[in-house]
Amino acid sequence: MQDEGIRTAASDHGFMFHHAKRDYSVLALWLGAGESRLPPFATHQIGVAGAVVDESTGKVLVVQDKNKTKNAWKFPGGLSDLGENIGVTAVREVFEETGVRSEFRSLLSIRQQHNHPGAFGMSDMYLICRLSPLTHQINFCHQECVSCEWLALRELATTSSTTPITSRIAKLLLYGLEQGFDKIDLTMEELPAVYSGMFYQLYHQQLPTTLK
């Protein structure tokens, strides 16, 4: 009740809710001139999928979700934990859903969507990474998936039993498999931040050796 009284008193003086988490809430009042320039709290969720490509067979690991209305082939994935790099998320989610161990190779694509129903009406970023398999034995999670297979990339690129984004990424991966993944990969480089002294991960296309 004491906290409720404090919030009520703050609201009476013009404070507005900025954000709330499990054990606290933050109210703010802009004291400067003009409209508030306080940045809004985080409004995005990050989903990451891992396209595990076996270069020796030309196959990719795909699943069918258990709780979807259409059993379409897609890449295994899920939400990134706070403070978790996207490559780590992809590897973790692939293992949790399929039992296959893998390692991060590159970032392939980013999809942005707003008013996402699965993100409480907020914005959603969906990133797809290319992974290489370290194991091949499938032991998929029956709580999340109804099926899991190593499917030929060419079949995934042409089948109607998939999603538009999966079909496009399959075609991209097929091109990379035939022409070289350096043509499609956004590789990761860790660099120091100028102002904070922390490190960040930059994903970009690699320059030819002669231009480095």
Protein topology:
Blueprint: H1 2-12, E1 16-21, E2 24-28, E3 44-54, E4 59-65, E5 77-79, H2 86-98, E6 102-113, E7 123-133, E8 145-152, H3 153-158, H4 164-179, E9 187-192, E10 199-204
Parallel strand pairs: 3-7
Antiparallel strand pairs: 1-2, 3-4, 3-5, 4-8, 6-7, 9-10
Protein architecture, described:
The protein is of the alpha+beta class. It folds into 2 domains: 1-34, no CATH class; 44-187, Nucleoside Triphosphate Pyrophosphohydrolase (Alpha-Beta Complex), CATH 3.90.79. The protein has 4 helices and 10 strands, in the order αβββββαβββααββ. The protein has helices spanning 2-12, 86-98, 153-158, 164-179, and strands at 16-21, 24-28, 44-54, 59-65, 77-79, 102-113, 123-133, 145-152, 187-192, 199-204. Strand 1 (16-21) and strand 2 form a beta hairpin. The radius of gyration is 22 Å and the shape is globular. It is found in: Cytoplasm; Nucleus; Mitochondrion. Belongs to the Nudix hydrolase family. Monomer and homodimer. Pfam families: NUDIX.
Question: Notable features of this structure?
Answer:
212 residues, alpha+beta, Nucleoside Triphosphate Pyrophosphohydrolase, 10 strands
What is this entry, summarized?
The protein has 212 residues and is of the alpha+beta class. The chain has helices spanning 2-12, 86-98, 153-158, 164-179, and strands at 16-21, 24-28, 44-54, 59-65, 77-79, 102-113, 123-133, 145-152, 187-192, 199-204.
Shape: globular
Strand content: 35-45%
Distance between the termini: 62 Å
CATH class of the largest domain: Alpha Beta
- Low-pLDDT stretches: none
> What is the radius of gyration computed over CA atoms, rounded to a whole number of angstroms?
22 Å
Overall mean pLDDT stands at 88
What is the number of strand segments? Answer: 10
CATH superfamily label of the largest domain:
Nucleoside Triphosphate Pyrophosphohydrolase
Report the biggest beta sheet as strand number plus sense, adding barrel if it closes. Answer: 6 strands, mixed
